[in-house]
Every structure is written in C-alpha cells, then in structure tokens.
Amino acid sequence: MTKVEAPVAKNEYYDVTFEDLTHDGAGVAKIDGFPIFVANGLPGEKAKIKVIKVKKGYGYGRLIELYEPSPDRVDAPCPIYKQCGGCQLQHLSYEGQLKAKHKHVKEVLARIGKIEDVIVHPVLGMGNPWRYRNKAQVPVGEREGGLVAGFYQQRSHEIINMEACLIQQGMNDVVVQTVKKICEKYGVKAYNEETHKGVLRHIMARYGAVTKEVMVVLITRTEDLPHKKKIVQEIIENVPNVKSIIQNINPKRTNVIMGDETKVLWGAEYIYDYIGDIKFAISARSFYQVNPEQTKVLYEKALEYAQLTGEETVIDAYCGIGTISLFLAKKAKKVYGVEVVPEAIEDAKRNAKLNGIDNAEFAVGEAEVVIPKWYEQGIQADCIVVDPPRKGCDEALLQTIIAMKPKRVVYVSCNPATLARDLRILEDGGYKTIEVQPVDMFPHTNHVENVAKLVLKEETSCFGS
Ligand code: SAH
C-alpha cells in the first residue's frame, strides 16, 4: 500500500488564500486540497504562512505576512488579546462575527443533523458588544513582592497582569484592581500553585447589571486572612455600591476555583439582579447567566416558541436556578423544573418565592431519570423546554419526550453540534424543527447559543399559527 504524502512540509512557507473560518476562529487554507488551520486568518485574505505541524489529513500554520486583509478585519481593541486566549474573534468586525456564527450554525445543522429544511434566523447580536460579563474570577499571583491579577498565559501557569478586560462590566475591573491594591497594602501573600503556599487564590466580582449591586469574593487557601477587618473596611470604603463581601476557602491543590466553605465577611449573603421583570438572588456560588442582557433576548425567544396561553403544563429540563422556568410560569398553568445540582434547586425555589410565583415546582435529579418517572405518574406536558450542558440531552430523555408527545419542544443549546444530533433524534421520533434562532451571548468568543422550535408532525399543518 502506498502511503499518501501530505502535500505540505513542516517549516515550509506557502502563499495561500483563506477559504473559511473554523468555529474557534482559525482561518482555513487549502494547499492541494489539504486543509491548514491558521490562527488569525480570515476568509478571503491572501497571506504567507509557515506550516508548523502536519497531521494525518490536516495541518497547522502560522500567519507570517498578510498580503490582502479582509474588509471585515479590525484591530483588536484589547491590548492583550493575543496572549490571553479568552476571546478568539476580536480581529473580526462584529458584523463579521455574527455572519460567521450564522454560517457555522447552518452548516452544523445540515452536516450533523441532516437538518436543511429549516429557517435559521440571523444571529441576534448586542447593540454594544463590549463590557457585558457580570462575573469576573481572576487568579492572583506575585511579581517582585507585589500582587498581580490577570489570566494564565496560554500553555503556562504564569499570571499576566490585566488592568482591564473589555468584555467585563467596567465595575468588575474596578473591583479587581481595588481589591488587589488593598490586599497588597496589607501584605497578603498570593497563593502559589507550585508550592501550595500563600493565601489569596482568586478575586471574584459579581455585578447586578440592572441593580448595580456589587459582590466581592476573596477566595483563599486558608481561613486565616491577615488584617481581615481592615481589608473589609477598605473594600467598603473604596468599592462603590458593594453590598456583599464574602470569603470562600479552598484549601485543596486543584484548579477548581471555589472551595466548599463560604463565609459572609460583611453585608448580605446575596446580591440581586433582574432578567426582564424577574428578580434573582445571586449568591457567591450560584450559577447565573453571565450576559443578562442577551439572556433576556434568549428567554423571550424561548417563551415565544413555547406559544403559551396560560392553560399549559410545561416541563423545564436542566432548569438551573429556575431562570427559564420562572419566565414560563407567568404564562403557563404549571411548570415543572428539574436540575441535578441540589443548591441550584434551592435557589430556584427561593427565586420563585421572591417573585410570588406559586405555579412552579422543582425537583432535584437527572432529567433523564426524573422526567420518565413523571411520565409514568401521568404527568403530561404540553410543552417541554430543554437547556442541557454542552454534551446535549441524554438519549433516554429524548425517547421519553418522543413517547410523551408534547405538542412543542423548545431546545435551548450552547453547542450547535449536540443540538444538531439531538434534533435529528427528535425528528426521527415524529417532530419537525420549524425554526432556529441563534443568539450571541458571548461576543468576541467562539460561542453561540441557539433556541430551536419543534412541533409534533401532525401539528405541522398549522405551525406558525
Ligand atoms: N436553564 C438554566 C441552566 C442551563 S445550564 C439557565 O438558563 O440558567 C445546564 C444545567 O443543566 C446546569 O445547571 C447543570 O447543572 C444541569 N445538568 C447537567 N446535567 C444534568 C442532568 N443530567 N439532569 C438535569 N440537569 C443537569
């Protein structure tokens, strides 16, 4: 058998035209049909590249010289964009990002799910796609006796100091810088991963975009934090609108950020925020969507696709702290939420009370175990909403949906590939995907969220009504 040689060689230079963009923001050039992935290349651009790695069937290259930049190319506004790795698409105009994400969703639905006969709407982007993240968790290190707070350089454990992160709410930058200076003033030692010594591991900031309330969390290795009282006092004096100062203790050798023990050092255990007109209490450890403005856009679309009249029973699978459930509850007769993390369900119940919502019921457990039980007990949903993690829905859950036959399924997804796979299973089980709405929850990164509307096939004659 003859071995097929790659038409390129490592360390050689080539002139190429980028044809495509991968979902994680690399340009794709083809040399005699052999794809080479090049960070920072954009479709349509002509460039000189150097091949740096050759694998079976594809390779990687480095951009050496750009001969013809794309009209969609922009200067990344963040000075540490290339070192940080948190964003992948800052060199592409925002319009260009939205178009690329739309193309990606359409392609993945067709390729993985064989779903072509479906409307994929243009991606709903942000008016101002900067300063949107409401939560910052920044590792702390030491340089020449002083503290640095920033991010780990790619493929290393060195912390690069960061003065500002342009996708963070401005207040989170203020919190991180202020707390870093205060801790430095009182001689707090940064945690050192290698020696497992030192105290301060991470500074975390949470910000209620609507309420403007601020939470500061000091994540420490030891319970003992030198000059704790003075540090707390200075945070109160210097961080505007701070409502809660928390210490979380993580004594383990781990890259998991938070430990099991959480103490209120000052103020409230929670801050509050709103998505639409629903109020949420957010504690240091609770899950809360990081882009609340776009979360509202996403949930309103999910609610529209659920087509509720007030008479329906709805199941919200993978409900987290009940965010979607509470949105649905206002328009449905009854909502059942299920989620595997017990603390999230406690939050969901408290959030329901906080909003005077009494037609939502929550259960702890795996959706693929709890929902089949509900089905056996005779609970019949008119609509099921699912919002699974990246790996998508468990097949047992999809089969239960197919057996239960709710008229509508609304699928909220953070991973187009598993969405496409699961839509295929539901389509084979009697559903039709009517439309998919991508929403840009994480501008400048390679992520894209989607919400899909499916109806039972016997209903398709009147879909859109
Ligand atoms: N709908 C929520 C949370 C979505 S994130 C929101 O919009 O805020 C996905 C959630 O699924 C997480 O809270 C995770 O804990 C939960 N989860 C993961 N696997 C699960 C399973 N098998 N059954 C139920 N919930 C699960």
UniProtKB/TrEMBL annotation:
<dbReference type="Pfam" id="PF01938">
    <property type="entry name" value="TRAM"/>
</dbReference>
<dbReference type="InterPro" id="IPR002792">
    <property type="entry name" value="TRAM_dom"/>
</dbReference>
<dbReference type="InterPro" id="IPR010280">
    <property type="entry name" value="U5_MeTrfase_fam"/>
</dbReference>
<dbReference type="InterPro" id="IPR030391">
    <property type="entry name" value="MeTrfase_TrmA_CS"/>
</dbReference>
<dbReference type="InterPro" id="IPR012340">
    <property type="entry name" value="NA-bd_OB-fold"/>
</dbReference>
<keyword id="KW-0004">4Fe-4S</keyword>
<feature type="domain" description="TRAM">
    <location>
        <begin position="7"/>
        <end position="65"/>
    </location>
</feature>
<feature type="binding site">
    <location>
        <position position="318"/>
    </location>
    <ligand>
        <name>S-adenosyl-L-methionine</name>
    </ligand>
</feature>
<feature type="binding site">
    <location>
        <position position="339"/>
    </location>
    <ligand>
        <name>S-adenosyl-L-methionine</name>
    </ligand>
</feature>
<keyword id="KW-0489">Methyltransferase</keyword>
<dbReference type="InterPro" id="IPR030390">
    <property type="entry name" value="MeTrfase_TrmA_AS"/>
</dbReference>
<feature type="binding site">
    <location>
        <position position="289"/>
    </location>
    <ligand>
        <name>S-adenosyl-L-methionine</name>
    </ligand>
</feature>
<keyword id="KW-0408">Iron</keyword>
<feature type="active site" description="Nucleophile">
    <location>
        <position position="414"/>
    </location>
</feature>
<dbReference type="GO" id="GO:0051539">
    <property type="term" value="F:4 iron, 4 sulfur cluster binding"/>
</dbReference>
<dbReference type="GO" id="GO:0070475">
    <property type="term" value="P:rRNA base methylation"/>
</dbReference>
<feature type="binding site">
    <location>
        <position position="387"/>
    </location>
    <ligand>
        <name>S-adenosyl-L-methionine</name>
    </ligand>
</feature>
<dbReference type="InterPro" id="IPR029063">
    <property type="entry name" value="SAM-dependent_MTases_sf"/>
</dbReference>
<keyword id="KW-0479">Metal-binding</keyword>
<feature type="active site">
    <location>
        <position position="414"/>
    </location>
</feature>
<protein>
    <submittedName>
        <fullName>23S rRNA (Uracil1939-C5)-methyltransferase</fullName>
        <ecNumber>2.1.1.190</ecNumber>
    </submittedName>
</protein>
<keyword id="KW-0411">Iron-sulfur</keyword>
<dbReference type="Pfam" id="PF05958">
    <property type="entry name" value="tRNA_U5-meth_tr"/>
</dbReference>
<keyword id="KW-0808">Transferase</keyword>
<comment type="similarity">
    <text>Belongs to the class I-like SAM-binding methyltransferase superfamily. RNA M5U methyltransferase family.</text>
</comment>
<keyword id="KW-0949">S-adenosyl-L-methionine</keyword>
<dbReference type="GO" id="GO:0070041">
    <property type="term" value="F:rRNA (uridine-C5-)-methyltransferase activity"/>
</dbReference>
